[in-house]
Design brief:
The protein is an all-alpha fold. The protein is 72% helix and 0% strand.
Length: 197
């Protein structure tokens, strides 16, 4: 809300994106060997994390393929930056959600109902502000989204607080896999470039 009002007061100008999600040149390109290999490596990384998460029946393992998909960007530098910011945001969001979820532990009856509805509102406010600050600070965006999602996931079915730890762990693993795959793709591109001349 605050970001929206600031945008209105400043004169509603479009702000440039700090990190472009889409490349500037979106014209059609000829499929080359390295481009196909890059797509295959990314697909194998996502398939591998899905197989790990669901094949091993990991608790909250679905966070791993999601984090892998988000961490893999077109370039290694951009992937590393996004991965570090996502990891920091996930840690901040998990700690904030765990602290907020401590509120209803001693409540019962009507007070518990009121506290849970209040926490739902807090989660929705976090999600709205996360969407508003996405291009301003990606780490804070990830923190707000992670906190909002963790609160909404835990409210209907309260779990032990180790669940937030598992979610952060699988996010860390997914981000690590994404960065590793991007490093391998970068090495493959360098090797192919040296072999071409």
């Amino acid at each position: 809300m605050v970001t929206f009002f600031a945008w209105l007061i400043r004169g509603r100008k479009d702000q440039p994106q700090p990190v472009a999600e889409l490349p500037g040149d979106t014209s059609r390109k000829k499929l080359t060997g390295p481009l196909i290999m890059f797509a295959v490596i990314r697909a194998l990384a996502i398939a591998g994390t899905v197989a790990l998460a669901f094949g091993l029946n990991l608790s909250h393992g679905y966070w791993m393929p999601i984090a892998t998909m988000v961490a893999m960007k077109p370039g290694l530098e951009q992937s590393t930056l996004v991965a570090a910011q996502r990891l920091a945001g996930a840690l901040i969001g998990a700690v904030a959600a765990a602290l907020i979820l401590l509120l209803p532990t001693s409540e019962h009856g009507l007070r518990l109902f009121a506290v849970e509805r209040g926490l739902e509102v807090v989660a929705l406010v976090l999600l709205m502000h996360g969407a508003a600050i996405r291009f301003w600070n990606y780490a804070l965006y990830c923190a707000a989204i992670a906190a909002g999602v963790l609160i909404l996931v835990d409210l209907p079915q309260p779990s032990d607080y180790a669940a937030e730890g598992y979610r952060v762990l699988w996010t860390l693993c997914g981000v690590g896999i994404g960065v590793l795959v991007m490093m391998l793709a970068g090495l493959l591109a360098k090797r192919t470039a040296k072999a071409s001349p």
